[in-house]
Design brief:
Layout: E1 2-7, H1 13-27, E2 33-38, H2 50-58, H3 75-78, E3 81-84, H4 87-95, H5 100-104, E4 106-108, H6 126-144
Parallel strand pairs: 1-2, 1-3, 3-4
Helix pairs in contact: 1-6
Bound molecules: 4-nitrophenyl phosphate (4NP).
Pfam families: LMWPc
EC number: 3.1.3.48
Enzyme class: hydrolase
Amino acid sequence: MKILMVCLGNICRSPLAEGVMRHLVNEQNLGWEIASAGTGDWHIGSAPDKRSVAVAKEFGYDISAQRARLFDSHLFDEFDHILVMDKNNYKDVLRLAKTEEQRKKVSFFLADEGEVIDPYHHNHLFEPVFKEVEARCKKLINQWK
Ligand code: 4NP
């Protein structure tokens, strides 16, 4: 199974979801492939935000080697599930879908249109966002394995 995590900048939320999910998936030898991308192009090639790297490290995950990339329509065919962090991501990703099959791959990371708040302008949100992401990754693995 191939899962793509998507947010806006691909430096705060989706890198956390990517790194945590990959770590947990590898611990259980599930063989799933995990990646992330952003709908905005400002940070292409950059490491995750220092605050995401720090909170991940604090809880035992190393996301420092990940690099931001732009969401692109060819990724619809590369991944089985495209999980978005908020409603804007959902709209931006769906705008690039060309077929019903592609549209069906897109859903909310938190399910039921739940949104992971963008912590970029709020230092104090990185820890709650991390915890929400980690809990959801564990739940997804238990649902899908
Ligand atoms: P992310 O957070 O979508 O969780 O990576 C953001 C990071 C950067 C920007 C916006 C959101 N930005 O505007 O540069």
